[in-house]
């Protein structure tokens, strides 16, 4: 990038995307930035989710930065702690860590006099030209409303707030939910606990997967051949883009039929008791909810100390969970693997844009953004993994890298002095949103299930087109679709 106007940046959040933003800004010669992180460590979702069995079900050789490939992953799908360590290492090696202000939550962010004014916990204040919100997608726990939940006498916590000092061994554990999180916890703890009750409201399709440890020789091979490692990353990226990501946006695609068949065979082959098999069989199509990938969930739920509870939860009592059939499931520990509030994004931060427009009002019906990156009325405010972007069973790192490349081009307009304020035009935003909502109707996510992908209208809050279209959109911003003011 050329020399030009000196710009100051605030990056909100030191997770995968915040660290990426810092590295890329610096690479572009934009070194005047601070990352504000409310916690005391970096790592985002991998810092917050530490439940037993946590792993990433996107292949590790894809779920890493393209510029910091890692030959040392322990498995094709690595555990969460290893991923967190990876982000810490990359941040350290790129000298990003010293630029993170920990324990600093951005409370308000207000556009005044052509700049963003940030009020941060601890009485801090900052004034910047550009804000990059890297606040994550699934961040705020969704706590279920269940009668008597507070009366439970044992330990009870959300999966993203795991209490590691609570003993599980030899005790009776209840898990509410059957999403990716609950499935991973079930497999990880069933061998340790006296009894496990899995409270299932909706059955889930499970995609089989194997995950053997890489041998020392394999890791040495990755280390000694960076070209092969880069090829592996590129091939996985192609595989996901051309395969799964394209398939989910076309419910009638042959690939979707193949996914369905793999899941059905997994269920038929690996669950022996016909009654249990039927209780585990979803009544909607595979990948309508986010597809769960597991090598061992069916084995875990068939252990003699495991029980699948399909009667609905009526209330919680001090001794355990009561289901509508009148049964009390006595428990020592109750885990709420009940997911996240998927529409919160950078909230509860108060964002006030041009002419006093508040984010809560702009998003009153539901979150929306042009290409999931920027919003009318909020100049020079850019999001990584913002609303309605590509989410699902593929690498959000790749998504964030492409978005950051696009954002840097917008920033370059500012730096060259071509304009001082960039927002998408209202027409661009409305047209994009209309097309997006229309296209969403063809996706697998609308084929008859409830999931966190769906917005208040039942329309998937996701990117509804093939991934190559996303790549193409991210290549260069279209000037005519932006209101670039001097
Ligand atoms: P989730 O997919 O939203 O699942 C929440 C579960 O809780 C569902 O089974 C839901 O039932 C149940 N539930 C919610 N409220 C309930 C209530 N009041 N009573 C009974 N059941 C209730 O949440 P998650 O499993 O934490 O996963 C969230 C997302 O995180 C995933 O979709 C994925 O994107 C990501 N994740 C990824 C990985 C990975 O390996 N990459 C691992 C974990 C999570 P219903 O289905 O009936 O609503």
Strand order of the largest sheet: 3-2-1-7-19
Mean pLDDT: 96
Rg computed from alpha carbons, rounded to a whole number of angstroms: 23 Å
CATH architecture of the largest domain: 3-Layer(bba) Sandwich
Q: Which secondary-structure class do the elements indicate?
A: alpha/beta
Domain module tally: 2
Give a quick account of the main beta sheet: strands, pairing sense, barrel closure: 5 strands, parallel
Provide the helix percentage.
Answer: 25-40%
CATH topology of the largest domain: FAD/NAD(P)-binding domain
CATH superfamily of the largest domain, by name, is FAD/NAD(P)-binding domain
Cα-to-Cα separation, first versus last residue: 20 Å
Q: Judging from the principal axes of the Cα atoms, what is the shape?
A: globular
Structure characterization notes:
The protein folds into 2 domains: 9-140 and 341-485, FAD/NAD(P)-binding domain; 149-205 and 249-336, FAD/NAD(P)-binding domain, CATH 3.50.50.60. By secondary structure, the protein is α/β, with parallel strands linked by helices. Helix 1 runs parallel beside helix 11. It has helices spanning 16-27, 45-48, 80-93, 180-189, 216-224, 226-248, 254-270, 274-279, 297-301, 359-362, 396-415, 426-440, 467-475; strands at residues 9-12, 33-36, 100-101, 106-112, 115-120, 124-128, 130-133, 155-158, 172-176, 195-199, 206-207, 292-293, 306-309, 313-317, 320-323, 328-330, 333-336, 350-352, 381-383, 421-424, 482-485. Helix content is 30%, strand content 17%. The model has no long low-confidence stretch (mean pLDDT 96). Strands 3-2-1-7-19 form a 5-stranded parallel beta sheet, covered by helices on one side. It has a 5-stranded parallel beta sheet with strand order 8-17-9-10-13, with helices on one face. The chain is globular. Strand 15 and strand 16 form a beta hairpin. Bound molecules: NADP nicotinamide-adenine-dinucleotide phosphate. Residues 55-58, 138, 144, 146, 159, 176-182, 184, 201-202, 290, 313, 337-340, 450, 452 line the site of NADP nicotinamide-adenine-dinucleotide phosphate (NAP).
């Amino acid at each position: 990038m050329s020399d030009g106007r000196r710009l100051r940046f605030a990056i909100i959040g030191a997770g995968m995307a915040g660290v990426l933003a810092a590295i890329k800004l610096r690479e572009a010669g934009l070194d005047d930035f601070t990352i504000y992180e409310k916690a005391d460590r970096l790592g985002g979702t991998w810092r917050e989710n530490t439940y037993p069995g946590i792993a990433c079900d996107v292949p590790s050789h894809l779920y890493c930065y393209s510029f910091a490939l890692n030959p040392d992953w322990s498995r094709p799908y690595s555990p969460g702690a290893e991923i967190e360590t990876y982000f810490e290492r990359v941040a350290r090696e790129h000298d990003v860590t010293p630029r993170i202000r920990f324990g600093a939550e951005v409370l308000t962010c207000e556009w005044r006099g052509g700049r963003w004014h940030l009020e941060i916990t601890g009485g801090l204040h900052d004034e910047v030209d550009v804000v990059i919100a890297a606040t994550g997608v699934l961040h705020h726990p969704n706590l279920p409303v269940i009668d008597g939940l507070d009366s439970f006498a044992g330990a009870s916590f959300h999966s993203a707030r795991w209490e590691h000092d609570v003993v599980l061994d030899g005790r009776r554990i209840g898990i509410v939910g059957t999403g990716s999180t609950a499935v991973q916890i079930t497999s990880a703890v069933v061998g340790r606990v006296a009894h496990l009750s899995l409270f299932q409201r909706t059955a889930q399709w499970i995609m089989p997967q194997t995950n053997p440890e890489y041998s020392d020789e394999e890791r040495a091979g990755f280390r000694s051949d960076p070209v092969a490692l880069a090829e592996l990353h590129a091939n996985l990226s192609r595989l996901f883009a051309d395969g799964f990501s394209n398939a989910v946006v076309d419910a009638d695609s042959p690939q979707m039929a193949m996914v369905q068949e793999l899941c059905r065979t997994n269920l038929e082959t690996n669950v022996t008791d016909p009654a249990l098999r039927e209780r585990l069989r979803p009544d909607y199509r595979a990948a309508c909810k986010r597809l769960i990938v597991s090598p061992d969930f069916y084995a875990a739920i068939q252990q003699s100390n495991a029980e699948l509870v399909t009667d609905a939860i009526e209330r919680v009592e001090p001794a355990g969970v009561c289901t509508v059939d009148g049964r009390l499931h006595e428990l020592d520990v109750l885990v709420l693997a009940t997911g996240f509030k998927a529409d919160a994004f950078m909230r509860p931060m108060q964002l006030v844009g041009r002419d006093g427009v508040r984010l809560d009002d702009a998003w009153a019906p539901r979150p929306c953004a042009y290409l999931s990156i920027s919003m009318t009325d909020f100049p020079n405010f850019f999001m990584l993994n913002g609303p309605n972007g590509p989410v699902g069973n593929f690498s959000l790192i790749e998504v964030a890298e492409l978005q950051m490349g696009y954002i840097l081009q917008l920033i370059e307009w500012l730096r060259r002095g071509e304009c001082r304020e960039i927002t998408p035009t209202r027409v661009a935003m409305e047209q994009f949103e209309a097309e997006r909502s229309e296209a969403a109707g063809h996706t697998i996510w609308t084929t008859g299930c409830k999931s966190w992908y769906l917005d208040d209208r039942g329309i998937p809050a996701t990117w509804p087109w093939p991934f190559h279209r996303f790549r193409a959109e991210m290549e260069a911003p279209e000037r005519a679709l932006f209101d670039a003011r001097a």
